[in-house]
């Protein structure tokens, strides 16, 4: 049982600090708290900590055993996988042939990249994107003309003054 000294004017204990210390002990699981009536009772048994350590040790030992078993399984599977991969003349020649084919494929890919500009699918995609961009440019040009006519009517100004003030070129027109 944990005995907490009562605050005394001689020792200068602060009640709140005792509450905080006891609460941190309860939070850490080092002691227990039970409310009986209007009082809180705190206790801890010396053997309880030893039992917790023993349980933790047993759990860790079990984990170690499981990890060692898994390691043995993995090393066995690696050994089984390497059984058919001994270096033979046939395997060496196949690896060389594979390397030649990969080098040839890489060379063809780089050559393909040089001709990518003439790809019909890429050209079609660029035409489609150009049409979308042209439509967007025309829409914004129309919006500028609509805003210009509204401002000129609302504030009784000339379109040339509006264009000059907002930096709109005189030859601006739809694309």
From TrEMBL:
- Gene Ontology terms describing biological process: reciprocal meiotic recombination
Q: Which organism is it from?
A: Coemansia aciculifera
Keywords from the UniProt entry: Coiled coil, Nucleus
Annotated protein name in UniProt: Meiotic nuclear division protein 1
The encoding gene:
MND1
User: Which Gene Ontology molecular function entries are recorded, alphabetically?
Assistant: double-stranded DNA binding
Compartmental location:
Nucleus
Looking at the record, the residues that make up the Leucine zipper with capping helix domain are 122-174
Q: Which residues form a coiled coil?
A: 50-111
What role does this protein play?
Required for proper homologous chromosome pairing and efficient cross-over and intragenic recombination during meiosis.
């Amino acid at each position: 049982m944990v005995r907490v000294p009562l605050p005394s004017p001689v020792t200068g204990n602060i009640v709140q600090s005792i509450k905080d210390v006891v609460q941190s002990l309860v939070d850490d699981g080092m002691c227990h708290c039970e409310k009986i009536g209007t009082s809180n009772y705190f206790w801890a048994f010396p053997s309880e900590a030893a039992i917790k350590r023993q349980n933790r040790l047993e759990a860790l030992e079990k984990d170690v055993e499981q990890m060692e078993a898994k390691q043995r399984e993995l090393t066995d599977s690696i050994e089984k996988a390497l059984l058919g991969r001994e270096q033979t003349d046939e395997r060496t020649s196949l690896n060389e042939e594979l390397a030649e084919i990969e080098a040839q494929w890489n060379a063809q890919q780089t050559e393909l990249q040089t001709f990518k500009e003439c790809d019909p699918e890429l050209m079609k995609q660029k035409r489609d994107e150009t049409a979308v961009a042209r439509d967007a440019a025309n829409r914004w040009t129309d919006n500028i003309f609509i805003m210009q006519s509204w401002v000129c009517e609302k504030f009784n100004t000339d379109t040339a003054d509006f264009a000059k003030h907002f930096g709109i070129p005189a030859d601006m027109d739809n694309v």
